[in-house]
Amino acid sequence: MTAGVPGVGPADGDALGPERYAEADGVRLCYQSLGDPADPTVLLVGGVGSPMDWWPADLCVALADLDGPHRRHVVRYDHRDTGRSTTCPPGAPDYTGRDVTEDALRVLDAAGVRSAHVVGLSMGGAIAQELALEHPDRVTTATLVATTRAVSGPDDAELPPSAPELDGLWDGPAPDPADTAALVEAAVAEDRALTGRGTFDEGRTRAVATRGVERSIDPTAGGNHFAAEPGEPFAGTLADIAVPTLVVHGTEDPLFPGHGEALAAAIPGARLLLLEGMGHQAPPPETWDVLLPELARHTGSSDPGAVPRQDG
């Protein structure tokens, strides 16, 4: 595996093919897919307020080309209130957190996929946990990246708090939605604060942020994810998750320090992959030599404990 994809940049959305739409229950969700739908599907679920661009295009291409008995069919999508998906006025979401979780199923239905390897980042990792609890028939495996527990447990108070340097990071008004430059700068500043030491690449981040802002109907509407009511609680506990689970966490995650270890310990049979130097972010290219073989193993077989056949 190489830590980069020649000819494909982090914001090269064209490499993933045309944008398509899942339309169901009055909601329109924009998604892209790469690869053959007959191959195992990897569904990428992004973080709070994030359009699909924050799953960088070169990472998506690398995932589609994982070693193993099959290539992968990779799908990423814009949450509602991000990108080109259904967008509400800022401060007035007409949906619940449960709706945001179930949007993943709407995307799978539109893509003609019954069950997927769900890879969730931050809020997306919580969504993956909730889907595994209530829709295990739709989740072949779960990969939980830079996230924490989606359902409460008796020892939640023991989880380490966020790093003090994040205090106030999200305070203050959002930039003018028409001020593209200010919106990009805000996204770059946020990513800089959340990224692990030595893994922040300003050019890479700026390219992704610019594409995400320019594609969005209203780049400030993603804040509605914080304002939405949670909706009907998801049933069960982490001990009830029965799908094969891989927990991927950075050793320098300032938002959820140490939460990866606690999450893996709470899910039966879960494996923990700690990525040295990674913060609260999509895994950066310098981690791919470790990450991609683990994902090949995890998604390449109905038994993730078995290492899949290598090509050649």
Automatic annotation (TrEMBL):
Highest taxon of the source? Answer: Bacteria
**Where in the numbering of this chain does the AB hydrolase-1 domain appear?**
42-280
Database matches in Pfam families: Abhydrolase_1
Q: What is this protein called?
A: AB hydrolase-1 domain-containing protein
SUPFAM superfamilies, alphabetically? Answer: alpha/beta-Hydrolases
Q: What is the lineage of its organism?
A: Bacteria, Bacillati, Actinomycetota, Actinomycetes, Micrococcales
Q: Which organism is it from?
A: Isoptericola cucumis
